[in-house]
């Protein structure tokens, strides 16, 4: 079985349809993920992110935050698209909002679809909108993407004038959560929504660790000691995440797996994913590692070109020294535990 904590497939389908590709659907497509491949390759659950890029949704206010007057509407459009696709693929997919529905997927063979939001700025700092997301079935949210918002600051900040290759290696240890961000973390825990720290600044990570009382996740982040990109977690972060009972999902983005000189092609290699998995295992133990492919939100990793290839990662990790029991935890068990706790 497989649980993948992050993909951007719904946003990519919407993007392609906007470009005239009305035939791009979730059931079968040429993207990294479609419903048929998920079922045929043993997926128990796929987390589908409703990803909103704030750049197209508003303007910057005097505090340096986006005032995304259309961000909520963009999120709602993605939500409607996903729900239409779920209805049209009810023979293959089942929306999951609680542990009982996840168990139903195990019994029926359907693939669970768990809704997440990638970009807490869609709420505009409104607790009422956060609760609306929960009522819509959203069960995980990244507090930021690559822009500051009312909740906090990211490590890669597209507004600070250094967005690009250099910004991948300069972490923000100063700007963390706002007070509203801390309030959101507390309210998300009360509701039963997973707090996701992928994209969040280094300071923000520690603010979440200080504020949260239960497990939180880094849905699609790797190990910074192996690849120094600031989208990855330091060893201290990995230990803190493990101690809290949280997990991090291996991200298949080649540039988050291995550092090459700027401009040099980085096609992606299975041995790089294995190196990150082994490092996280050594630092945080076998309970804190899962999968967070970032499929359809990244350039194709030639060694892992889509859902149909994830079994090759199983083989690579087994050759790297993981036991089948440990692989079961990485591929679904650890995520199942955290979801069962929070949902």
Overview of this structure, please?
This protein has 343 residues and is α/β, with parallel strands linked by helices. It is built from eleven helices and eleven strands. It has helices at residues 9-18, 35-40, 71-88, 99-108, 127-136, 179-191, 202-211, 235-243, 270-284, 310-319, 324-342; strands at residues 2-7, 43-51, 59-60, 66-67, 93-95, 111-118, 138-142, 194-196, 217-218, 247-250, 289-291. Strands 1, 2, 5, 6, 7 and 8 form a six-stranded parallel beta sheet that branches. α6 links the parallel β7 (138-142) and β8 (194-196). α5 runs parallel beside α6 and α9 (270-284) packs across α10. The relative contact order is 0.14. The model has no long low-confidence stretch (mean pLDDT 93).
Give keywords.
343 residues; alpha/beta; six-stranded parallel β-sheet; three-stranded parallel β-sheet; 11 helices; 38% helix
Shape: globular
Mean pLDDT: 93
* H and E order: EHHEEEHEHEHEHEHEHEHEHH
Stretches where pLDDT is under 50 for at least 5 consecutive residues are none
């Amino acid at each position: 079985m497989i649980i993948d904590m992050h993909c951007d497939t719904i946003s990519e389908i919407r993007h392609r349809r906007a470009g005239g590709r009305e035939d791009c659907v979730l059931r079968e497509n040429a993207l990294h993920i479609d419903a048929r491949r998920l079922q045929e390759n043993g997926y128990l659950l796929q987390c589908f992110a409703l990803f909103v890029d704030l750049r197209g949704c508003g303007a910057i206010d005097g505090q340096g935050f986006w005032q995304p007057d259309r961000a909520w509407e963009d999120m709602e459009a993605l939500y409607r698209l996903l729900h239409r696709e779920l209805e049209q693929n009810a023979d293959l997919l089942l929306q999951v909002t609680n542990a009982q529905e996840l168990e139903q997927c195990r019994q029926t063979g359907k693939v669970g679809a768990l809704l997440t939001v990638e970009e807490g700025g869609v709420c505009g700092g409104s607790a009422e909108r956060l609760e609306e997301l929960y009522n819509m079935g959203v069960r995980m949210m990244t507090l930021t993407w690559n822009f500051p918002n009312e909740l906090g600051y990211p490590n890669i900040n597209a507004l600070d004038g250094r967005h690009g290759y250099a910004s991948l290696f300069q972490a923000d240890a100063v700007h963390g959560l706002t007070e509203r961000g801390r309030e959101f973390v507390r309210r998300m825990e009360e509701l039963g929504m997973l707090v996701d720290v992928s994209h969040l600044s280094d300071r923000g990570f520690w603010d979440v660790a200080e504020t949260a009382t239960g497990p939180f996740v880094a849905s699609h982040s790797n190990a910074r000691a192996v690849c120094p990109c600031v989208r990855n977690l330091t060893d201290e972060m990995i230990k803190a995440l493990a101690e809290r009972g949280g997990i991090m999902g291996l991200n298949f983005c080649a540039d988050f797996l291995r550092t090459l000189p700027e401009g040099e092609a980085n096609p992606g290699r299975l041995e790089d994913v294995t190196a990150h998995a082994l490092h996280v295992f050594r630092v945080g133990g076998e309970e804190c590692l899962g999968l967070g492919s970032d499929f359809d939100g990244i350039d194709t990793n030639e060694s892992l070109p889509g859902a149909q290839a994830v079994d090759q990662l199983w083989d690579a990790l087994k050759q790297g020294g993981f036991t089948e029991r440990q692989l079961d935890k990485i591929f679904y068990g650890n995520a199942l535990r955290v979801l069962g706790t929070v949902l």
